[in-house]
Amino acid sequence: LGAEKSMSLVRFYILALKGAGWLKMRLNLLEEAKPILEKLASLDTANRLGIKDLLDLATDIEKGGDEDED
To answer: How many CB atoms lie within 10 A of CB 33?
Structure first.
């Protein structure tokens, strides 16, 4: 039971960091968002949380790309 709670807290922390990276990216604080997303991408090598997609989007925005490509 203790290990299960510990893993839940780790998952919560990782998802909170993902949210912080996404929010900073949306606020155009790319210099703060990219290090967060890069660290998470290095931890999530299988890209199960979709961090690589957010990191790619942040890189596109940084290069002057359009973030709303609908």
So the answer is: 24
DSSP state of 47: -
State how far the Cα of 10 lies from the Cα of 3, in Å rounded to an integer: 10
Distances (CA, A) of 30 to 7, 38, 48, 70: 29, 12, 22, 21
Q: Where are the alpha helices (DSSP H) in the chain?
A: 2-26, 30-43, 51-62
Paired tokens of 14? 């990782």
Check residue 64 and report its DSSP letter. Answer: T
Dihedral of CA 45/16/23/36: which sign?
Answer: negative
pLDDT of residue 4: 81
In this prediction the pTM is 0.77
Query: In terms of C-beta density within 10 A (0-12 exposed, 13-18 middle, 19 or more buried), how is residue 42 classed?
Result: exposed
